[in-house]
Automatic annotation (TrEMBL):
Pfam family, one: TetR_N
Region (Disordered), start-end ranges: 1-22
Cross-referenced InterPro entries: Homeodomain-like_sf, HTH-type_TetR-like_transc_reg, HTH_TetR
Bilayer-crossing regions: none
Highest taxon above the source species: Bacteria
Listed name of the protein: TetR family transcriptional regulator
Lineage: Bacteria, Bacillati, Actinomycetota, Actinomycetes, Micrococcales
Residues spanning the signal sequence: none
Chain ranges of the HTH tetR-type domain: 18-78
Organism of provenance: Myceligenerans indicum
DNA-binding region (UniProt annotation): 41-60
Keyword terms of this UniProt record: DNA-binding, Transcription, Transcription regulation
């Protein structure tokens, strides 16, 4: 039997770092759900995860990001859908397809978090503010991707206006998911209701954006 090559040190380090990050995030979420975000300290999270306070802050410089640990994925979500779409697919079609798939999969990135988690977010002004920052950063990332699509200068107005409309629709749909979650609806019920909401939103967007270069 041919011996398998040992895992490269760099790959092993990356895997261990991811495991440490996941452990910290998991313990933080458990404590937040048990006691509320604002009542839990970094020191308590570090103790629960078996690491130092410095290790926690190295992985998560802001306490809010321990709860909203998919922030990077959230911010890049729309721009990535634009970048990775097929050549013949429009921006709005790609974003519609992506959102419908995320809703069908009950993706937490689009708001399928479960009622306890949603209650934790709305119960903390710090988390609500951080989530708003993520929405703004996602819109800015989409604007940059759209500017690249048409060769516009960074900061050009038209890609920013288009991004504001597209990201605004996503924000409304995200908030609707949260609203239904807090009302006690199941993920299946929310996904079924969202399907028509998504189509209605993107039908309107496609009609309004049909003449845009991107």
């Amino acid at each position: 039997m041919t011996p398998q090559p040992a895992e490269a040190p760099a790959g092993l380090r990356a895997r261990k770092k991811q495991q440490t990050r996941d452990t910290i995030s998991g313990q933080a979420t458990r404590l937040f759900l048990e006691r509320g975000f604002d009542q839990v300290t970094i020191a308590e999270i570090a103790a629960a995860a078996g690491v130092s306070k410095m290790t926690v802050t190295n992985y998560f410089p802001r306490k809010e990001d321990l709860a909203l640990d998919l922030g990077d994925v959230f911010v890049d979500q729309l721009a990535r859908a634009v970048r990775e779409r097929a050549d013949e697919e429009s921006v709005t079609a790609a974003l519609r397809r992506s959102y419908l798939a995320a809703a069908a999969e009950h993706d937490p990135v689009v708001g399928f978090s479960g009622r306890p988690f949603a209650e934790m977010i709305v119960g903390s002004k710090a988390l609500v503010a951080r989530l708003r920052e993520f929405h703004d950063a996602r819109e800015a990332a989409l604007a940059r991707a759209l500017a690249e699509e048409v060769g516009a200068a960074p900061g050009a107005v038209e890609p920013r206006i288009t991004a504001a409309q597209l990201a605004g629709a996503h924000r409304v749909l995200f908030e609707e998911t949260m609203r239904r979650t807090l009302a006690g609806q199941s993920d299946d019920e929310i996904a079924a209701a969202l399907t028509s909401d998504i189509d209605e939103a993107f039908d309107a967007l496609e009609a309004g954006l049909a003449s845009r270069p991107a």
